[in-house]
Amino acid sequence: MAVFYCDQCWAENEPGAEQCAFCGANLREPQGDWVDRLTRSLRHPVPEWRAFAAYQLGCMDDDRAAAALCQATESEAGREDSELLIVAAAALGRLRRASSVGALSGLAKDSFIAVRLGAVKALAAIGTSEALVELEHIAVSDPSVSVRKCAEVAVQDAKREVQGDERRGSPR
Asked: In degrees, to the nearest 5, what angle opens at C-alpha 94 toward C-alphas 89 and 98?
């Protein structure tokens, strides 16, 4: 039998219910815009829905999406969901917000290599001086050779890009 969750409190409800039995929210009319709904879905009880929400938020050109993803990666529940962290890192890289560097720096210290690699790629995509400083630190300090190498290549690519811009006379 299908399970229906309230998008406000994530309580299970009977199929066909119009109000959440736990919090009283209207189950027929979702509250908020798409970014709000996806942000709430980052707390969905089904892990695949959390990852789906993170991916979709990464496709939005909205500062609220980046803020929600950063908050999810820093929450206790988010820190225990490696799939969410991997997808959130990629999403933050697609959004390219400088405000995400702190959260990505935290992900770069995760115990899972895939999460750290995702953070490195996202920091490289953001490309700010703060992101490059973090990448330089990762390139010399990460316990994994793969992560260090990925960060090293990202730093070299960024430096080449800056040198190319300087030769062409265009500011970065």
From this structure: 80
Residue 86 is which amino acid?
Answer: I
Phi-psi region of 32 (alpha: psi -120 to 50; beta: other; left: phi over 0): left
Q: Are the CB atoms for 119 and 89 separated by under 8 Å?
A: yes
Q: What are 107-151's pLDDT values in tens digits?
A: 999 999 999 999 999 999 999 999 999 999 999 999 999 999 999
Q: Dihedral of the CA atoms 26, 28, 29, 31 (nearest 10)?
A: 50
Six token digits for residue 34: 């798409």
Q: Which CATH class is domain 32-168?
A: mainly alpha
- Residue 158 burial by CB count (10 A; 0-12/13-18/19+): exposed, middle or buried? buried
- Nearest Cα residue to 90 out of 138, 52, 128: 52
CA neighbor of 124 nearest in space, from 132, 136, 133, 116: 132
Domain ranges of the chain: 1-31, 32-168
